[in-house]
Design a protein that fits this description.
Length: 84
Amino acid sequence: MAVVLRLSRAGAKKMPFYHVVATDSRNPRDGKFIEAIGSYDPNQEPPKLELNRERLEHWLRVGATPSETVAGLIKRAEGKPPKA
């Protein structure tokens, strides 16, 4: 089973909201997933990204592959100081 970290779309039409999920690569975008590890809201200024760092590191450690978009979001989140 190939596990990927990718976005799952939610929200209303023209108002997207995404969950960052760990899922089997064969599952559809908004289908069944193994675990939700965060969320991304591009409608806010600046876009709001919340990630469970512990679970993210776990999935990366066991070999999950992030999608291009999720990899970019992770890279952007690492550049910011952590919230207190």
